[in-house]
Design goal:
By secondary structure, the protein is an alpha/beta fold. The protein has two domains: 8-268, no CATH class; 271-325. The chain has helices at residues 17-22, 28-38, 66-71, 86-92, 102-112, 117-121, 136-145, 181-189, 195-198, 240-251, 265-268, 270-288, 301-305, 310-325; strands at 8-14, 44-51, 54-63, 96-99, 124-128, 153-157, 167-171, 176-179, 210-214, 233-237, 255-259. The strands form two sheets. The protein has an eight-stranded mixed sheet. The chain has a three-stranded antiparallel sheet with strand order 6-7-8. Strand 2 (44-51) and strand 3 (54-63) form a beta hairpin.
């Protein structure tokens, strides 16, 4: 009910030390993309990277080499639209590996139902566990807290260069500052996540061929620790093509994996489990306010809700009503 359909569940990391260090966690997604390119399984990778005109923002890029893939590596906590040019991509007929948010992959799956070209052009659809999409106000707050005018920022890296990696900001004069992941996400970005993401029933990439996440180590409190360490990815193969790609990458030494019991994800990603339990309460408040809500079929929202204490559901319902009345959502 929390982690979606799966065939294989692992923790692991990219064998290439550069890939592992550059990426946000263990480099699993980037490693698989690079492997698919170098093996000739696809001609290109469709993903997002920093926008040179506004470094905290995103743009969609097409990568055909390892270095190009790594230029877009690392989490990008800002709005993105990797399917904006999907018709051009389909018309070009170049076999592609797609990396996107869970909602992007879901859209691509839905499109495949009415356009047979989709699965031919995109044989591999990869995603990640998503905490929600913050607006650019979040990155602007980070820049200002580090002493920058957002308009003067020349480089903005949310994560990477270690695990979890630090947020790094620099300007044209070479001035550079950084902030811990725990502070950047916890104090600035998470509060700017749009409400639609807070009622997302599939933030874990349940319809992707492979979904990856941070395989956080738990602390004594039962909540993940964000101390710097060697990157480690959670890797879920969900489909036949996903398992095949993962198996090839392991056999040919691109990625190192260790089997993981599914229940262990609860300790690595407790915030995702909590969100799933509270979605029904948030949607009930939203409906009461006369707002439209998405249909959620086959996603075990009801089962997850039953795992939450009634007090927590009532508190979340009341809190959502309060934020609606206050105009905060």
């Amino acid at each position: 009910m929390y982690w979606g359909p799966w065939r294989e569940c692992h923790t692991g990391y990219a064998v290439d030390a550069r890939v592992r260090h550059t990426c946000s966690s263990g480099g699993a997604i980037s490693s698989l993309a690079i492997f698919a390119l170098q093996r000739g399984l696809v001609e290109q990778v469709v993903h997002v990277a920093a926008d040179p005109d506004r470094p905290a923002a995103n743009r969609t890029i097409i990568s055909r080499t390892k270095d190009e893939v790594l230029s877009g590596a690392g989490s990008r906590y800002a709005p993105s639209s990797p399917l904006a040019e999907v018709e051009k991509l389909l018309a070009a007929r170049k076999k592609s590996l797609f990396i996107g948010k869970p909602c992007d992959v879901s859209a691509l799956r839905r499109y495949a139902a009415i356009d047979s070209r989709v699965d031919q052009i995109f044989p591999y659809k990869l995603s990640f566990f998503c905490g929600g999409v913050p607006s650019l106000h979040g990155s602007d707050r980070i820049s200002r807290s580090l002493g920058y005018d957002p308009q003067d920022v020349e480089s903005f890296t949310y994560r990477g260069e270690g695990w979890p990696g630090r947020t790094q900001v620099s300007d044209a004069a070479g001035k550079r500052a950084e902030m811990s992941y725990e502070e950047s996400w916890g104090r600035h970005l998470s509060s700017e996540v749009q409400f639609r993401c807070k009622i997302c029933p599939d933030p874990v990439g349940g319809v992707a061929d492979i979904a990856c996440a941070d395989a956080w180590y738990g602390g004594e409190s039962g909540y993940p620790k964000f101390e710097e360490a060697d990157g480690r990815s959670l890797v879920l193969a969900r489909t036949g093509p996903g398992s095949e790609l993962l198996g090839m990458a392991v056999r040919e030494g691109a990625i190192e994996l260790e089997k993981l019991a599914l229940r262990e994800i609860d300790l690595m990603q407790p915030a995702q489990a909590r969100r799933k339990r509270l979605i029904a309460a948030r949607m009930a408040a939203w409906r009461l306010a006369g707002r439209p809500t998405p249909e959620m079929r086959g996603l075990e929202v009801g089962s997850a809700t039953q795992k939450s204490p009634s007090v927590a559901l009532l508190k979340e319902f009341a809190g959502t009503i309060r934020r609606i009345v206050q105009g905060r959502i």
